[in-house]
């Protein structure tokens, strides 16, 4: 069903590019609310996502929209946000009085999102419009503090393999990720509010873990809900005899 929605959206986008549009652009502010879940088993070492890794993060961006007519618009956004994830790591086979001893690791990243999409107005009453939207979202990720690699963790002879896994987590994310996104919006004149869901494609946002010369999959799914508001700061339409 999601792929069908994405296909229909792309048809609307192609139609929009072939007509004389009305252009507008402006700022966007919002909140990304992530949902992060997953785990890994690397030999005797277990890794799970920490439940409090889903705190919302602020978003700021810029959008540009081509309005084909009062029912159809094609748009693009460039947005910036951040994401933080935390993992619990332990050696399940370790034998000691208070085992397993659980340690924490994780990462912080900056995200640049490129979001081409289409909006289909279902209800249009004067300046008020209710719409559904869909498209694809490209996330380009890089370190929260580029070049500031944290010092390596070491537990000496304790907790075998745990430090090796933790030291891989800070930069263990994939630098690019594709999402399918869909949602709904409300617009009044030049002001709009948008709610959309981002469903990750691919099995994981993380790279494989390496331990004792072996590679282990680290399967972590990261989806988002985005709530945003924006303003069409400027718009114009080419003069022609057919006004929509």
Number of helices: 2
Strand percentage, roughly?
Answer: over 45%
Query: What profile does the largest beta sheet have?
Result: 10 strands, antiparallel
From the alpha carbons, calculate the radius of gyration and give it in angstroms: 22 Å
Please state the overall shape, judged from the principal axes of the Cα atoms: elongated
User: Which residues form runs of ≥5 with pLDDT under 50?
Assistant: 1-21
How far is the N terminus from the C terminus?
A: 32 Å
Structural class: mainly beta
Mean pLDDT: 86
* Helicity level: under 10%
Secondary-structure element series: HEEEEEEHEEEEEE
Q: How many DSSP-defined strands?
A: 12
Structure notes:
This protein is mainly β. Helices cover about 10% and strands about 60% of the residues. Strands 1, 2, 3, 4, 5, 6, 7, 8, 11 and 12 form a 10-stranded antiparallel beta sheet that branches. A hairpin with a 2-residue loop joins strand 1 and strand 2 (about 45-50). The longest helix has 16 residues, at about 1-15.
């Amino acid at each position: 069903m999601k792929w069908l929605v994405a296909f229909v959206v792309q048809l609307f986008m192609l139609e929009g590019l072939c007509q004389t549009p009305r252009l507008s652009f402006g700022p966007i502010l919002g909140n990304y609310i992530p949902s992060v879940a997953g785990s890994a088993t690397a030999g005797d070492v277990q890794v799970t996502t920490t439940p409090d890794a889903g705190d919302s993060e602020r978003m700021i961006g810029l959008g540009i929209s081509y309005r084909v007519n009062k029912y159809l618009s094609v748009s693009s956004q460039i947005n910036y946000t951040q994401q933080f994830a935390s993992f619990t790591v332990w050696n399940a086979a370790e034998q000691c009085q208070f085992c397993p001893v659980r340690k924490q690791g994780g990462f912080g990243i900056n995200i640049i999102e490129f979001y081409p999409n289409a909006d289909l107005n279902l209800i249009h009453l004067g300046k008020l419009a209710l719409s559904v939207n869909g498209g694809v979202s490209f996330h380009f990720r890089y370190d929260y503090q580029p070049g500031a690699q944290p010092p390596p963790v070491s537990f000496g002879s304790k907790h075998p393999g745990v430090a090796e896994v933790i030291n891989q987590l800070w930069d263990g994310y994939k630098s690019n990720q594709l999402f399918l996104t869909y949602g709904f919006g409300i617009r009044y004149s030049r002001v709009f509010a948008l709610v959309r869901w981002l469903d990750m494609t691919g099995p994981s946002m993380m790279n494989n873990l390496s331990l004792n010369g072996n590679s282990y999959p680290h399967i972590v799914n990261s989806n988002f809900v985005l709530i945003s508001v924006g303003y069409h700061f400027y718009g114009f339409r080419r003069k022609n005899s057919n006004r929509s």
